[in-house]
Amino acid sequence: MMQAARRAAQTVGSRTKWLSLSGSRLASQKTQPELTAVRYKVERGPYAVIGDAHASFFNGLLGPERVITEPDECDSYNIDWLRIVKGSSRVVLKPKSTEEVSAILRYCNEQRLAVCPQSGNTGLVGGSVPVFDEVVISMRLMNQIISTDELAGVLVCEAGCVLQSLEEHLTRVGMMMPIDLGAKGSCLIGGNVSTNAGGLRLLRYGNLHGNVLGLEAVTANGNVIDCMNTLKKDNTGYHLKHLFIGSEGTLGVVTKVALQCPTLPKAINVAFLGMKNFESVLEIYRLAKSELGEILSSCELIDRISVENSKSALGLRSPLSDEHDFYVLIETAGSHLAHDEEKLETFLTKLMDGGIVDDGTVTSEPSKIKSIWELRERLAESQTKEGYLFKYDISVPLPHFYSLVPVLRERLRDYNVRFVTGFGHLGDGNVHVQVSTPDFDEEVNAKLEPFIFEYTAKLHGSISAEHGIGFKKAKYLHYSKDQSAIDLMKLMKRTMDPNGILNPYKVIC
């Protein structure tokens, strides 16, 4: 059946008015999440409260059209994409240059005003929105592509460039981004770098620590740190760029990035396979590594409930007619179609002869590839259509990749839970575990945390594989980091941001 499927597939002006957040007004909007400070009982830090003198400075620096103070407009910067955390900032600044970012931070540091750097606001751990009334620094207007070196394969751009826009730009010159995310249409490259985002191509191209050749960042006191190297080899002293990659805006604000970009592949194939048990999933990955080798670019696991959610919530269609307990999506990317198809055919034949898969389809047709990938990329969206979603991003040894999901189903059996599901990047051990409830449920939350992090730690896994620590996981960092490492992180924070103004309440408590 799979062979037949393969053959078929191939034929603004703002008023300067500083208002406190109105709880009653927000309460009347049913889609508004509860204030983070209230839900999680957070105490505000020793920061100044913004006033007219601060407003006057910001307006003088940026002009009123790039200083947002209208409460309704500010709310879109206060609420995260998942709608699970909410701050109460009443000023959003939109710089257009590194010099403006520097001036903003220097002033805020002198005035003891806390700031929250924000990129595309697609983060999933509450790291990109304020907790209280921090000044939001939106990077969206710093969106210029500075240079493209086709021979060296290097792109230099500002931090506010949208990931998908960079992908489209590179495609025109035969290159591609080393990172691919479901949120690529709205996430910004500076945020990707600041969170060390993983995504769908990490198996092939590695994480951003290996693909960022250089960057520029502004520290809390306004100093511009120029590490804008475009060489692939530079072994001169400390690799300071790594301080900012994954620091989530707590050590500095990334303003420019130099990225190593691979050549655009000439031949792409996608296989979508269905099977009845997780043991078959592991066997598929083992064979994929040995048979597909250098052309294997992605290997994703999706469970049955996740596919059902995408079909019911978004109207998407599964490429397979029958339902299966597990699905594996495999992508190959190479430079020679006949060579890649031969390797893929050998791989698929071994799967079928060994009875490892129950059904499958494979295609090299771009429209069908896009349709299959849409099913995977929109999983998070489908599961947030209704109710509240407890979302966890962990990495564990491959034999335990899916083990947490049935454990949680049993643990939450007597609670008002809509579903527990899991999907993720099988190729790098990163599973996304989702628990859906009609509304935020304190009892369910207490059953999940810290249990999930304790479970992960016992397996010697990581409590955050790619989404970062943000606000949501700050108090659980010790499950993945030794106290000696946490102490060093705190020392770095005190050294680089002694007043603690950069993205407070995030990463380290």
UniProtKB/TrEMBL annotation:
Catalytic activity: (R)-malate + A = oxaloacetate + AH2
Enzyme class: oxidoreductase
Its EC number(s): 1.1.99.39
Cell location: Peroxisome
GO CC entries: mitochondrion; peroxisome
Keyword Oxidoreductase: yes
MF annotations from Gene Ontology: (R)-2-hydroxyglutarate dehydrogenase activity; FAD binding
Residues in FAD-binding PCMH-type domain copies: 85-264
Primary localization: other
Cofactor(s) this protein cannot do without: FAD
InterPro entries for the chain: FAD-bd_oxidored_4_C, FAD-bd_PCMH, FAD-bd_PCMH-like_sf, FAD-bd_PCMH_sub1, FAD-bd_PCMH_sub2, FAD-linked_Oxase-like_C, FAD-oxidored/transferase_4, Oxid_FAD_bind_N
Keywords, sorted A to Z: FAD, Flavoprotein, Oxidoreductase, Peroxisome
A matching Pfam family: FAD_binding_4
Subunit structure: Homodimer.
Family indicated by similarity: Belongs to the FAD-binding oxidoreductase/transferase type 4 family.
Name recorded for this polypeptide: D-2-hydroxyglutarate dehydrogenase, mitochondrial
